[in-house]
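[step 3/7] inverse_fold.run input=structure_tokens len=194
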């Protein structure tokens, strides 16, 4: 969600907020360190989401894309992580603040080819490697279980968590669209949100 004005109460424990990235599509006039502190003081956990470069096969709307070359994609993933760490710091969301120690990369759905899936895997490995080094931010990926090819990210090394958006209206997270049965458990146990 975009950062909302603070008012009233909510039945939710945590909220995902888009903190930055070249492909973030909403302005964030309310998102600043003060907002983060206030919302955290209310007891909400915040999961920052980074909307950076998308897969080279992404065509839904004009967007900045990462490279099809796996070596370049790996470096670009690391660069995105550095930018995300800078923004986390500016918002006061350092890993030492309870509930603010993780960040998810928003990987939009795309029409995958073997080359594009390999580029995504390499990009995410670069993202993970940079975040999992000091200051050790918990690195994750958020995307469609069906169209973001996140099941391909369950190999080794894998992100700390994979947050799958499953659009089949079935609350059972052991069976998810686009995720082979043998991988559903791994995604579920990693940190799956629907």
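[step 3/7] decode complete -> sequence:
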């Amino acid at each position: 969600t975009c950062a909302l004005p603070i008012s009233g109460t909510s039945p939710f424990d945590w909220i995902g907020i888009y903190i930055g990235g070249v492909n973030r599509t909403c302005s964030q006039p309310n998102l600043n360190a003060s907002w983060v502190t206030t919302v955290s003081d209310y007891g909400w956990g915040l999961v920052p989401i980074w909307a950076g470069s998308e897969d080279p096969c992404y065509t839904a709307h004009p967007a900045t894309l990462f490279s099809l070359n796996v070596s370049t994609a790996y470096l670009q993933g690391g660069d995105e992580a550095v930018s995300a760490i800078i923004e986390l710091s500016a918002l006061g969301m350092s890993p030492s603040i309870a509930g603010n120690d993780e960040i998810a990369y928003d990987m939009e759905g795309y029409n995958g080819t073997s080359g594009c899936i390999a580029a995504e895997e390499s990009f995410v490995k670069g993202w993970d490697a940079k975040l999992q080094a000091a200051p050790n931010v918990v690195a994750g990926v958020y995307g469609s279980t069906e169209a973001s090819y996140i099941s391909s990210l369950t190999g080794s090394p894998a992100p700390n968590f994979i947050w799958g958006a499953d659009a089949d209206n079935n609350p059972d997270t052991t069976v998810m669209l686009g995720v082979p049965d043998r991988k559903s458990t791994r995604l579920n146990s990693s940190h799956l949100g629907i």
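[step 4/7] annotate
The chain is about 30% helix and 15% strand.
Helices lie at 33-41, 70-90, 114-132, 181-191.
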